[in-house]
Amino acid sequence: MTDYTTSVTIDRPPQDVFAAINDVRGWWGVDVQGSNARVGDEFTYRVQDIHRSRLRVVELVPGRRVAWLVLENRMNFVRDQTEWVGTTIIFDIVDRGGRTEVTFTHRGLTKRYECFDVCSDAWGSLLHHSLPSLVTTGTGHPYR
C-alpha cells in the first residue's frame, strides 16, 4: 500500500510557500486552535462536526520541509476513528529556479482506509487550489 502523495509547483520562492503552509488557517481550515510555530507545538484542526484532528509539529526546516504527526482524529463519516492516528503529514519544498515544487505526502493514508477517497480528494483540492491561491494572491480557500 502506498501513501497518498501529490505535487504542485507554485510561482513563488520557497520561503513564501513555507510561510503559507504554516498559515494553516489561511489554506486548510479556519477553525484551528493552538500553535504550529515550533517543533513540539500542537494544534487542533476542526471542520464543524465533520472532522477534528490534533497534530504535533515534528519537523520544521525553513524553506524546505514541514511535518505534522496526527495524535488524535475523528471523522463523522468513517467507522474506524483511528484511521489517521499515527500518520504523518509532510510537505517537502524544493526550489525550481524561481518556482517552488511542493511534494505533499500523507504517510500512512493508504487505499485501505475507508476515508481514502474523500481524504485524497480533499487534499488534492487544498494542495492544488487553496494553498497556491494563498501563496500567489494572499487568499486561500480553507474549510469553514
Give a structural overview.
The protein contains 3 helices and 7 strands, in the order E-H-H-E-E-E-E-E-E-H. The chain is of the alpha+beta class. It has a single domain, classed as Alpha-D-Glucose-1,6-Bisphosphate, Chain A, domain 4. It has a 7-stranded antiparallel sheet. Helix 1 crosses helix 3. The protein starts with a strand and ends in a 7-residue tail after the last helix. The mean pLDDT is 96.
Helix content: 10-25%
Strand content: 35-45%
Mean pLDDT: 96
- Alpha-carbon distance between the two ends: 32 Å
- Taken from the alpha-carbon principal axes, the silhouette is globular
Order of helices and strands: EHHEEEEEEH
Question: Unreliable stretches, pLDDT < 50, 5 or more residues?
Answer: none
What integer value in Å does the Rg equal?
14 Å
CATH class categorisation: Alpha Beta
Q: What CATH architecture would you give? A: 2-Layer Sandwich
CATH topology: Alpha-D-Glucose-1,6-Bisphosphate, Chain A, domain 4
Total E-strand runs: 7
Secondary structure category: alpha+beta
What strand line-up does the widest sheet have?
1-7-6-5-4-3-2
Largest sheet: 7 strands, antiparallel
Number of domains: 1
CATH superfamily: START domain
Number of helices: 3
